[in-house]
Amino acid sequence: MRFKPLATLALVAASAAAAPPSFDTLIARMTVEEKVGQLSLFAPVSAGTVGNPATRQPSAAEQRDDLRAGRITGFFNGQGLAIKREAQRIAVNESRLGIPLLFAADVIHGFRTVFPVPLAEAASWDPALAERTARAAAVEATADGFRWTFAPMVDIARDARWGRSVEGSGEDVFLGRQFAAARVRGFQGTDLAHADTMLATAKHFAAYGAAEGGLDYNTVDLSERQLREVYLPPFQAALGAGGAAVMTSFNDIAGVPSNANPWLLDTVLRGEWGFDGVVVSDYTADEELIAHGVAADARDATRLSFLAGTDISMQSGLYRDHLPALVASGEVPMVRLDDAVRRVLRIKQRLGLFDAPMRGLDGADRTDWPEHRALAREAAQRSIVMLKNDGALLPLPKAGQRIALIGPFAGAGDLLGPWTLFPGARPPVTLEDGVRAALTDPSRLTVVRGSGIDTPLRGGLSAAVAAARAADVVLLAVGEGEAMSGEARSRTDISLPAAQQALAEAVAATGKPVVVLLRNGRALALKGAVRDAPALLVTWFLGSETGHAVADVLFGDTSPSGRLPVSFPREPGQVPYYYAHPPTGRPVPASQPDSFYKARYLDSPNEALYPFGHGLGYGDVHYGPPVLSHTRLPWNGTLRVTARVTNRGTRDTTEVVQLYVRDRVASVTRPVRELKGFRQVHLPPGASESVTFTLTRHDLGFVGRDGRPTVEPGDFDVWTAPSAGEGAPASFLLELSTQHHVGQR
Ligand code: BGC
Asked: Is 283 close to ligand 1, i.e. is its CB under 6 Å away?
């Protein structure tokens, strides 16, 4: 007889009030094989593995048998409703216990409607926007039967060589925390039991972005202080927002791969943070313990991964193949197995799967969501960062000028970004389409490719030069293709491919004003004619509404309001590059930038070409000095920091006022600046606004020498500024009150 989970749940709920269901009765009835099945996640063979390396695959018939035998907890990245419907039918009706499947997917930045890549969206500096796009993505993906997303990626990325920078929120801890929490709220909604919510996964735990040399999957070695201060806080923020799943990372930290790291998964995640959700292995990461050289074979890898605290094995099949024997031999205690199974069942229960396993699976495939197009356009507009606008070249008039749109990114392709597995049927709006639609006379636009992404085109340069000569202004669409960023897409050189640089030089040599439209998934090192163009817009991968959004900014229907979530270094050799670095003992004096025996390169200034936080609007914003409510911050008190910003320009603009602090003397080195707040203000021409931030000592803490959180009294600098590279600080004193112990000095 099949188990009736609903009845049991009702009984448990009646007897144990608010306590989560224990699933003891169900677990007691499960065979070890069925238990292990709840910990085994696979790609459906009928869909194949998309976006991942191929693995040994069972036949479709074998996978059906697995479903009937309860050997599978769910599928991931399976396209279409039909296969999910059929699989769920088998699991619920034909397996002994009828435990429903959970369908997962990489819903990273939209589903059918594609929103800007996460790094781009972080450039909006508007977490509420990310919450809205995650919500919309969840609505679309749940209509396709998915209730679990492998997002958000909350890895801090400070090395632009790492291709997966595109998937996160950039280099900064504070910004990263806000976006991590917002995306979780968006995916999970107010209650996971609602039909349009998805379980969110904070990934990749942990420090995946710290890979040596920016090489994907590479080793990581960092101090516990840096781990706790920089790489872990976005995870804490995601879980604090209710995130109920965590994915392990491929890398090792100081010799211990995450899948085999009980300190990370048990001591910190479950112990210190009280996480009671599920930990899923990244794709075959358990099996990779063998290649890491910490497991002798698959059985050993299974034991290490499971005992470290990884609940679910993704795609390798290792748990299915080896956990039963490990339990039989006593190497894996049954109680540990039951705990992991209970966590998975609870998640399925929270998602309402036991109550309504077919919910969301019975409709028709839907590939177009017109109601989300406006949000896609808004998100894309607000992700664009204007780095430069010399001589107020932008915005352009919609009439009167002849425009040449030149470059490999003028037309179709490379619009959606590297993690778009489920794009809708409607093609994305190209730059050409968007610009043409905005022009009063669309025939004034000429479009020439000029170059391939990394190879020259025969006759390309001369066609581009001719088009530029015949135009009044050039829009130069250059940068990276989708295949140049994302997983396994690390680059040693973050500048433009030579073919595109040659195109930029040839076009600039015509003397025509050039607006560079960068397509990119990471910070780039801009050179020559690209760097020197009078106007520069970072347009990332903006998704479904790319062309319209870029045109909205180009022609001034909206003022650009994005700010860089990653510093743009001057030279590729400066990476890893981030603004919040500790000072050295030999800083370069501002008054003598060329002095010797200082921490500087011989061939480049240290400063970023465009610092973190930088971005211009169409206004002309001036900052008053930061005004402090007091010069002393009492231990239990608050301090208000106010910036007065004025738009002296003639156009509406949106300013992102940023608050930074520096701890001048502490028991450990502290970053030269750290973001502690930001606020967007809309400023019509001539308008002023006062923006006030409140600081308490809790904003000033760090990880002390003993590895524990501490706050130390003393002098702090504080900036209210348009970027991490601008502004002059005020200062205040954090006063120690005698009854409070602070960390050792
Ligand atoms: C990636 C994950 C992703 C998983 C499933 C892995 O290669 O690292 O981010 O969620 O594949 O597609």
From this structure: yes
CATH topology of domain 621-734: Immunoglobulin-like (2.60.40)
CATH of 378-574, one of 3.30.565.10, 1.10.10.10, 2.10.70.10, 3.40.50.1700: 3.40.50.1700
Give yes or no for residue 372 CB within 6 A of ligand 1.
no
Q: What is the DSSP letter of 270?
A: I
Length of the chain counted residue by residue: 745
Concatenated DSSP letters of 549-611: HHHHHHTTSS------SS-B-SSGGG-S--SSPPP-SSPPPTT-TT-SSSS--SSS-SS-SB-
The tens digit of pLDDT for each residue in 51-98 reads 788 887 888 899 999 999 999 999 999 999 999 999 999 999 999 999
Cα–Cα dist 426/544, whole Å:
8
Question: Distance (Å, rounded) from C-alpha 118 to C-alpha 412?
Answer: 21
Give pLDDT tens digits for 560-606.
999 999 999 999 999 999 999 999 999 999 999 999 999 999 999 99
Identify the CA nearest to 202 among candidates 269, 142, 145, 251.
269
Tell me, yes or no, if 321 is annotated catalytic.
no
Q: CATH for 7-350? A: 3.20.20.300
Identify residue 16 by its one-letter amino acid code. A
**Distance in Å, CA 438 to ligand 1 centroid:** 39
Atom of ligand 1 nearest to the CA of 50: 12
Q: Would you say the CB of residue 487 lies under 6 angstroms from ligand 1?
A: yes
Kindly name the residue from 66, 155, 216, 282 that is annotated as catalytic.
Answer: 282
Burial 363-397 (b: 16+ CB within 10 A, else e): eeeeeebeebbebbbbbbbbbbbbbbbeeeebbbe
* Residues 434, 89: Cα–Cα separation, whole Å: 45
Our answer on whether the CB atom of 51 is closer than 6 Å to any ligand 1 atom is yes
| Ligand 1, atom 8: closest residue by C-alpha | 282
Three-class SS of residue 388? strand
Residue 710's H or E segment, with its range, is strand 709-710
pLDDT for the residue numbered 52: 87
The pair of structure tokens assigned to 675 is 């973001």
Cβ-count burial of 684 within 10 angstroms (0-12 exposed, 13-18 middle, 19+ buried)? Answer: exposed
- What DSSP element (H or E) covers 446? strand 445-448
Q: How far is the CA of 183 from the centre of ligand 1 (A)?
A: 18
The answer, yes or no, to whether any atom of ligand 1 lies below 6 A from the CB of 205, is no
Q: What is the pTM of this model?
A: 0.96
Digit-coded pLDDT (tens) for 15-49: 334 566 779 999 999 999 999 999 999 999 877 76
Residues 710 and 743 sit within 8 Å (Cβ to Cβ): yes
For residue 106, list its beta bridge partners: none
Express each pLDDT in 636-691 by its tens digit: 999 999 999 999 999 999 999 999 999 999 999 999 999 999 999 999 999 999 99
Residue 744 clears pLDDT 50, i.e. is over it = no
